[in-house]
Specification:
Length: 287
């Protein structure tokens, strides 16, 4: 099975503006998608639509506070940018608490996005925690061209049932039955009727044909390391497993070195890589 090449680093914003030139936007909507997780609907001041590839990210500025790399979580081709943010630090706190009408700075999109499988391929999507947000644009893209693919499966793990991001949307996808969906949580009360345990525990439920499948992984690094190892043991080639890495990205163009992982700069060379490329680096403790 061949793969279309992964989307490469952007040189323009999709609006004819260099990607590293800051642009002004305004928050038009804000909603809670899980405890401490907020989704912003951003409209650019110049009203120009911004193209991006699923898996890419923008640098968002909370004026007077700072800038942070945030994956795009909305559907490609929309008139607004959608970003889902966990409130965990000063900059993300400021971004997550922007109200409708507040200004926001946008640089991007940047990075290498998810690859596109050839028609007829099976697609296995595995997410942990907020890792579903960078994968969500790919899910939208697959749903828009659903007849072009074989089996599509989403395996998603979170800490608790209430931490499942986009919960209502995930349940809607499940009802539509266009995607096979399996959920798991680390901890749950007596009212939870689903699986409890790590996401690798869901893999036996997937009928995987290594000759026609690709896998897209995003979540905690330890999760991706164990899932990647389990998939290769099932015969899936490491070049057909893709992981989205998360490191401390500051400049988005590979100049500052904050996101360097071995010889790799996550912002410039990723954030999406083949598991084959990341496996040696992910196995080094504290790298």
């Amino acid at each position: 099975m061949a793969l279309m090449s992964a989307h490469r680093l952007s040189t323009t914003s999709g609006c004819g503006v260099p990607a590293d030139v800051p642009r002004l936007g305004y928050v038009r909507g804000r909603r809670s998608d899980a405890p401490g997780v907020w989704t912003l609907d951003i409209e650019m001041a110049d009203d120009a639509p911004c193209d991006f590839a699923p898996g890419q990210f923008n640098m968002l500025t909370a004026f007077g506070v700072g800038e942070a790399a945030i994956s795009i979580s909305g559907a490609p081709g929309g008139e607004r940018l959608i970003h889902t943010i966990r409130d965990v630090g000063p900059v993300s706190h400021a971004l997550a608490n922007l109200a409708p009408g507040d200004p926001i700075g946008v640089r991007g999109p940047f990075g290498v996005g998810w690859p596109m499988a050839t028609p007829g391929s099976d697609v296995l999507i595995i997410a942990g925690g907020l890792g579903l947000a960078p994968l969500r644009p790919s899910i939208y893209d697959i749903l828009a061209r659903r007849d072009a693919f074989g089996a599509v499966t989403l395996l998603y793990g979170s800490r608790r049932p209430e931490d499942i991001v986009f919960h209502a949307e995930v349940e809607a996808w499940r009802r539509e039955k266009k995607i096979n969906i399996e959920l798991t949580v680390d901890h749950a009360g007596v009212d939870w009727r689903g699986h409890v345990g790590v996401v690798t525990g869901l893999l036996p439920r997937v009928q995987l044909d290594p000759s026609r499948a690709i896998a897209l992984l995003c979540g905690p690094e330890v999760m991706m390391r164990f899932v990647g190892a389990a998939l290769t043991e099932q015969g899936l080639d490491a070049t057909k497993i893709f992981v989205s890495m998360e490191r401390n990205m500051k400049c988005a163009i590979g100049h500052c070195g904050h996101c360097q992982l071995g010889p790799t700069f996550i912002c410039r060379d990723g954030p999406v890589f083949t598991y084959e490329r990341m496996r040696p680096l992910m196995s080094v403790k504290e790298l």
